[in-house]
Amino acid sequence: MTPRSVSSRWQSCGPLAVALLAGCLTAAAQDAAKPTAPLPSNVSLRHEVRHAIEKGCAWLEATQNTNGFWSQPDHPALTALVLTALIGPSPGKSTSPAIDKGYAYILSCVQPDGGIYKKEVQSYNTSVVLSALVLRNRPQDRVVIQNARQYLIGLQVGDTQLGQSNSPFSGGIGYGGTDKRPDLSNTALVLEALYESRASVQDANGVKAPDLNWKAALRFVQNCQNLPGPNALPWASDDPANKGGFIYAPGRSNAGQTNMPSGRVAYRSYGSMTYAGLLSYIYADLKSDDPRVISALDWLRGNYTVDENPAMGPQGLYYYYVLMAKALTFAGVDILETNDGRKINWREELALKLINLQKADGFWANENGRWWEKDPILDSAYAVTALEIIENKL
After folding, report:
1. How many Cβ atoms sit within 10 Å of the Cβ of residue 66?
2. Tell me, what's the pLDDT at 208?
3. Domains in the chain, ordered, with CATH?
4. Inter-CA distances, 262 with 149, 238, 268, 342, Å
5. Which residues in 351-380 are b (16+ Cβ under 10 Å) and which e?
6. If I label 188, which of 2, 13, 132, 222 is the partner at 20 to 30 A Cα–Cα?
7. How many CB atoms lie within 10 A of CB 38?
8. What is the mean pLDDT of the chain?
9. Distance set, CA 125 to CA 81, 320, 353, 364 (Å)
10. Residue 18: pLDDT band by 50, 70, 90 thresholds?
């Protein structure tokens, strides 16, 4: 199974389509799309969003280190996330002194093995940087992009590496280096980077390079979903609080466990990983009527909120926001109908939430430090990207 050749999230859209950023859907969403009346345009809110984006970008540009990186030199992914926010969907913003210095820095992190990292979390850094390089879309970066793809593909683990036949972790990808145990967060980032760079699957001589084992990756992703049937593992829960949602890795939830009335212990589904799981299914070309996709959306409808990362509270909140914006956009969801019958314009609600969370100087900051989110540079990059995805559909 390989992803179809459809438009990537930003850079593959032509000049007209760029203005319809949120309409660049995956093939899975397009298959199910039905003609509907366009939503009324909210011009006032769109201007507010543009103002918040510009303030956020100005603050980010002002915080760049003189050596070209943002936040931490040992993690080029942080710089790549800022570059993604600064470029946004506008082809006219593909270069500036800050952007050029930032890209020069991340290119200085290219390793002989094709990865793009410094010392650790090789998979995470390479995935995020690869997506940023594809977004810039420069011919001179093609070899770096191709080598980074092959590096990530080489991190996919199988039963041999795990020393276990039919391992539930087989097909996934972890942080890399000494930490090879796969998890959904890293796997989703790799799938995104490979999906976005799929136009680079051939080398300069036109020879098709080896690709990821997408079937194995899909099996790993479904092994992270609370959905008996597709997930045959004994812990998969069909209780209403968890059914359809995702956890961090097979048998491990960062949201912890809960005791069910039946006496069994369930691993709690949570928001950010459920959006990551939904995105992974889209990248793997699942159709919108697939039970795994339907169940994921059902859980998200039942747990919709912009006030917290469901089941995680403030932990990973800005990561949750950007995943929500990506997943619901790529799934073709304009109005989210919750399980209690409410019809929600999620773009407006998320945009207003992010505007209200923005500090006077233009940045965002989570008071909870889980997953580095006390770093206002990271939070601001996530927030600006989420607003850019939302902007042109308002």
Report:
1. 6
2. 78
3. 15-391 (1.50.10.20)
4. 45, 12, 15, 30
5. bebbeebbeeebbbbbeeebbbbebbbbbb
6. 13
7. 7
8. 88
9. 10, 19, 29, 22
10. very low
